[in-house]
């Protein structure tokens, strides 16, 4: 794979602290303006694929709106797991309907993509897969 | 004493008694079963304690890491 | 998930919250490091960075009060003892955190 750079967005399109999604070769990418330094990450949250541009960017930390998973945009590292909506033995509050609506609103923006396939081969009773 | 496995002050209080060869029993609240946690939780509430460590020396309850209080309670 | 990068992120977010409340991270860097590490462990277990020195009651309303930084829920108490319960944060003018005893609310005339 060659290291070919393509134009994504002009520098006057995102204010400092802001984010914007671009699509390049079918991939959705979020560009973050961290005080004049730009970072680019995949749009889909590493947890449940929510659109990260709908989260919040603070410094170089991006928090996903769906379950508050946090990422370091300089490395892509997931810094935390999801915050659980409820503890085990709690009754969901009456706001459950609102909560579901909010989740639905976020999910609306998530593209369902075709899944990647792998070539297969049969050999001596084993199924082999090309990675 | 009631303690937490994650609390440095709880470690200090255990060390305080261990170093002076004073026998003690302890329960790490976070590692206990639900029933034990409930019991400890109620005891904390009754004593007006909001955190650990929670030490009982005789009849005296001492909340927080308090070496001077331990010494005076043991002296009695 | 790297504990060190998570600790750095927690430091970044917490600093912004406790500053306006009149607190700062304890100058005892060993204690601060240990406590933040415990919070990372608690966060990986429960999904939330709880105080490493207070009980998780499994009751939402009570547990909200020990999510770090828990200073707003214990303002009077912590202002009186000039530190938070676990000692991760102290009043801005504190230079010697070891001199601040861990006093429960009752012993500072509260509750």
Walkthrough of the structure:
The complex is a heterotrimer of chains A (131), B (76) and C (111). Chain A is mainly β. Chain A is built from one helix and eight strands; from the N terminus they run E-E-E-E-E-E-H-E-E. Chain A has a three-stranded antiparallel sheet, with no helix packed on it. Chain A has a three-stranded antiparallel sheet with strand order 4-5-6, with no helix packed on it. In chain A, strands 7-8 form a two-stranded antiparallel sheet. The longest helix of chain A is centred in the C-terminal third of the chain and has 12 residues. Chain B is built from three helices and four strands, in the order βαβαββα. The model of chain B has no long low-confidence stretch (mean pLDDT 95). Chain B is 45% helix and 16% strand. Chain B is an alpha+beta fold and 76 residues long. Chain B has a single domain, classed as Glutaredoxin (3-Layer(aba) Sandwich), CATH 3.40.30.10. In chain B, the strands form two sheets. Chain B has a two-stranded parallel sheet with strand order 1-2. In chain B, strands 3-4 form a two-stranded antiparallel sheet. In chain B, strand 1, helix 1 and strand 2 form a beta-alpha-beta unit. With 111 residues, chain C is mostly helical. Chain C has one domain: Alpha-Beta Complex (Ferredoxin Thioredoxin Reductase), CATH 3.90.460. The longest helix of chain C is centred in the middle third of the chain and has 18 residues. Chains in contact: A-C, B-C. Chains A and C meet through loops of A and helix 1 and helix 2 of C.
């Amino acid at each position: 794979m060659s290291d070919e750079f393509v134009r994504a967005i002009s520098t006057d399109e995102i204010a400092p602290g802001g984010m914007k999604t671009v699509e390049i070769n079918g991939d959705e990418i979020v560009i973050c303006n961290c005080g004049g330094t730009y970072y680019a990450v995949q749009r889909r949250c590493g947890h449940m694929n929510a659109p990260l541009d709908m989260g919040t960017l603070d410094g170089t930390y991006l928090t996903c709106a769906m379950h508050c998973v946090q990422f370091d945009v300089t490395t892509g590292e997931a810094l935390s797991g999801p915050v659980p909506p409820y503890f085990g033995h709690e009754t969901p509050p009456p706001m459950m309907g609102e909560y579901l609506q909010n989740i639905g609103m976020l999910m609306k923006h998530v593209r369902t993509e075709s899944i990647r396939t792998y070539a297969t081969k049969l050999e001596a009773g084993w199924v082999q897969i090309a990675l | 004493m009631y303690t937490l496995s994650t609390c440095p002050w709880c470690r200090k209080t255990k060390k305080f008694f261990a170093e002076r060869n004073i026998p003690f029993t302890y329960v790490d609240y976070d590692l206990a079963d639900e029933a034990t946690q409930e019991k400890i939780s109620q005891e904390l509430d009754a004593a007006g304690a909001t955190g650990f460590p929670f030490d009982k020396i005789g009849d005296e309850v001492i909340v927080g890491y308090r070496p001077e209080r331990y010494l005076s309670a043991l002296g009695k | 998930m790297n504990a060190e990068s998570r600790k750095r992120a927690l430091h970044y977010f917490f600093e912004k919250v406790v500053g306006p409340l009149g607190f700062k991270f304890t100058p005892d860097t060993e204690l601060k490091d240990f406590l933040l590490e415990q919070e990372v462990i608690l966060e990986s277990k429960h999904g939330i960075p709880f105080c490493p020195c207070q009980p998780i009651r499994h009751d939402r309303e009570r547990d909200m009060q020990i999510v770090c930084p828990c200073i707003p829920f214990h303002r009077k108490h912590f202002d009186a003892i000039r530190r938070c319960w676990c000692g991760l944060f102290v009043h801005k003018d504190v230079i010697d955190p070891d001199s601040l005893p861990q006093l429960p609310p009752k012993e500072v005339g509260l509750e």
